[in-house]
């Protein structure tokens, strides 16, 4: 590849990392509490509210069932309202964030459900409030699993960010489509795939390392 293409590849990698990082941070701020609510409002839990839990679970399932490529197109008016445009990295972050929120919620729910019920019961017996149980028992006990699950979400966002290139979302996907596929440049396509593979490997390694260090077992 030419020096110009290498520069574009590096620029696109930066855009992808930026998109995924910002989307993941925003989605985690909403998705982690969502996962906590899905667990704690279920039957026989510390904040039991079955009706609310069922409605919340239905909304989460509904959003998760929409394919990402359809979600991107469907919320273009919302994207324009939020960031003022429907193309580019800023625009791509809107559907990425919306898609990640319910995914994170379900992943966090899975991790929290693995916490030993006896630990929660012991905290309740000592008079801990629901918020104290969430902050001092549930989240600390499940933190390793949560990190591992969030790693999976990050990898999913890397793939989705590449898909966002189909509608001018920027990043590696946009590079692969505009400079690789449309110009019949197999070398650009191959380079993009290799960079994506390396990026995913790095994310997975980092996530596994952090999860292992935080594992109390």
Number of domain units = 1
Q: What is the CATH homology-level superfamily?
A: MetI-like
User: What is the straight-line distance between the termini?
Assistant: 48 Å
Structural class: mainly alpha
Number of helices: 9
User: How many distinct beta strands?
Assistant: 0
Radius of gyration: 20 Å
CATH topology: MetI-like fold
Oligomer: single chain
- Low-pLDDT parts are none
Mean pLDDT: 89
* CATH C-level name: Mainly Alpha
The CATH architecture classification is Orthogonal Bundle
Secondary-structure element series: HHHHHHHHH
The backbone outline, from C-alpha atoms, is: elongated
Range of helix content: over 70%
Fraction of residues in β-strands: under 5%
Strand count, sense and closure of the main sheet?
none
Mind explaining what this structure looks like?
It is a single chain. This protein is mainly alpha-helical and about 220 residues long. It has one domain: MetI-like (MetI-like fold), CATH 1.10.3720.10. Helix content is about 80%, strand content about 0%. The protein is built from nine helices and no strands. The chain has helices at about 5-40, 50-65, 70-75, 75-85, 90-115, 115-125, 130-165, 170-180, 185-215. Helix 2 packs across helix 5 (about 90-115). The protein is elongated, with a radius of gyration of 20 Å. It starts with a helix and ends with a helix. The model has no long low-confidence stretch (mean pLDDT about 90).
């Amino acid at each position: 590849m030419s020096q110009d293409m290498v520069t574009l590849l590096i620029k696109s990698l930066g855009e992808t990392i930026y998109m995924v990082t910002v989307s993941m941070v925003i989605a985690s701020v909403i998705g982690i509490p969502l996962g906590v609510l899905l667990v704690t409002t279920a039957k026989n839990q510390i904040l039991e509210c079955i009706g609310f839990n069922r409605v919340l679970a239905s909304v989460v399932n509904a959003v998760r069932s929409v394919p990402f490529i359809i979600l991107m197109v469907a919320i273009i008016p919302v994207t324009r309202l939020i960031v003022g445009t429907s193309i580019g990295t800023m625009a791509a972050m809107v559907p990425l964030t919306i898609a990640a929120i319910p995914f994170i919620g379900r992943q966090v729910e899975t991790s929290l459900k693995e916490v030993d019920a006896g630990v929660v019961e012991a905290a309740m017996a000592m008079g801990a409030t629901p918020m104290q149980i969430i902050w001092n028992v549930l989240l600390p006990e499940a933190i390793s699993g949560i990190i591992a699950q969030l790693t999976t979400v990050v990898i999913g966002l890397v793939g989705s960010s590449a898909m966002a290139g189909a509608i001018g979302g920027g990043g590696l996907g946009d590079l692969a489509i505009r400079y690789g596929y449309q110009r019949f440049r197999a070398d650009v396509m191959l380079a993009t795939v290799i960079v994506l593979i390396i990026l995913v490997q790095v994310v997975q390694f980092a996530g596994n390392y952090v999860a292992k260090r935080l594992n109390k077992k």
